[in-house]
Amino acid sequence: MDEIPWFEYDEDDLDIAQRAFVDVLAVRAGSWQVDPLDTVVLPSAHTFNSQLIVYLDIGDAQRNRGILTVGAHFDGSVVRGGQLHNQDFTIQETASEFVFETTGDAANLASRTAEWFEGVLARPLVRSEWHHKGRMYAVRYEYTDTGRGVSEGFEDAAAPYPLRKRLAADRVIRGKGRINQRELGQPDVIAHVRGVRSNQ
After folding, report:
1. 18 with 44: CB under 8 angstroms?
2. What is the pLDDT of residues 176-198, one digit of tens each?
3. Would strands 39-42 and 52-60 be described as parallel, antiparallel, or unpaired?
4. Which run of H or E residues covers position 120?
5. What does each C-alpha distance from 194 to 1, 124, 175, 198 come to in angstroms?
6. pTM of full prediction above 0.90
7. Which of 47, 3, 44, 4 lies closest to 21, judged by CA?
8. Which of 14, 21, 111, 142 could disulfide-pair with 149, CB 3.0 to 4.6 Å?
């Protein structure tokens, strides 16, 4: 069975500079702790800004859940990277800690982009879980180096009734707002997901 390459692409979809850029990334990605299927190339003919987009889906393999999409837009001489919207792949400027920009030739830009991806992958990411009657009702993924949350979820039906009642009174549940972690108290589980383990 053939191995799936990292940042797989059809040669006819990319020009020489784009192939050079992606080829460097693919070689570097071979040492990353990611599934090749989580590395994606969007040819410039199929993107909203006519730029090549490369991205990486960061997930929680234990929970089979996507957490974050990070990627870079390449126009031949400039690369802009950051957290991407997971449907239209625009750079989310509000997530400024992920944003990066650099200029140069394709090989140089690819090397710097690979370093940026590696830096994101090395950051300590944890999953906090809250349980009630043996079921998880809330989850939050965050980087422990900054405390920044990147993904969260809340299952109203599994939560303790007094908490549901309080959150409903505050109009927080059912998409009316974000749940403040302080409202939930200490998590029942904190699990390391990826990156360098931080001292907690």
Report:
1. yes
2. 556 667 778 899 999 999 998 76
3. antiparallel
4. helix 106-122
5. 28, 6, 28, 11
6. no
7. 44
8. 142
